[in-house]
Amino acid sequence: MRIAVFAYHDVGYECLKVLLDLKENIVAVVTHEDDPEEAIWFRSVAELARAHRISVYTPQKPNAPEFVGLMHILSPDLILSFYYRRLLSKDLLEIPRLGGINLHGSLLPKYRGRAPVNWAIINGEAETGVTLHYMIEEADAGDIVAQRAVAIEERDTALDLYKKIIAASAELLRETFPLIKEGKAPRMPQDSRQATKFGGRRPEDGRILWDSPARAVYNLIRAVTHPYPGAFTYFGGRKLFVWQATVSGAWSKGSRQKATGHRADPGTVEAAEKGKGIWVRTGDGSLLLARTQLEGEEEAPADKLAARCGITAGTRLGE
Fold this sequence. Notes:
Shape: elongated
CATH architecture of the largest domain: 3-Layer(aba) Sandwich
Helix content: 25-40%
CATH topology of the largest domain: Rossmann fold
Strand content: 15-25%
CATH class of the largest domain: Alpha Beta
Distance between the termini: 60 Å
Strand order of the largest sheet: 3-2-1-4-5-7-8
Number of helices: 9
CATH superfamily of the largest domain: Formyl transferase, N-terminal domain
Radius of gyration: 23 Å
Order of helices and strands: EHEHEHEHEEHEEHEHEEHEEEEH
Number of domains: 2
């Protein structure tokens, strides 16, 4: 069987490895040129393919007639997509006799669209997963082949969760591929009434809104911490990135009143605890910032950065 693989990122890398381990006949790997504006912290699908002497293509417009024509020449029996970032056209998907199957990083129909791992954490989900589904012209809306759930732990960052997604993706593909190859893969229609859709995230979407609940701020911080652009607020007109925080534990009400003299407004620093960080008021309580970074400077424990920069009880962040 002839397979064309459209893939990128670590999920693409690991799923391509599964197919290589199975000694499948991969006639082409279609991937992306790395964006110089993006932090590339993941492994290269293109390098893996070239190491196995597989032809690699990086079209800017995979649905353009000339590339569709190339796919006709290559004549794949199946198209597989693993974290490829562009929607494939009907003209492409009609070429393989077994159609096209995509792997998406959520339990569809929930979290269709971009950045499902980050959005699941931002929204405080306790579970997400991966889905193999047939591709149609609407993104992430085709019939489901198989799914695997993944737990989201209280302290999981997006990178922690993404590593779980990588492992689950490879396992699901390895288990399901024999049925796909035989043309016997299940087709379970999605319930569009249950669908949720989310768009891609930009660095500016990481701004902390201090009048949000403490849990919501915490979820944002762990959803966009390293290797993502980071959650941020402002201090003295400069961005102050927050790379790590916690909502567990508390410091005494008496200490808070002594430090600020009154109930603090959201975004107000309430106290610093040596070796732990700084407490900041949110919309419904306090959040302990553990690791912070002023724009243009080195990352540091929040209490040390506060001492160095004059961030004391009563300081208002976000302005």
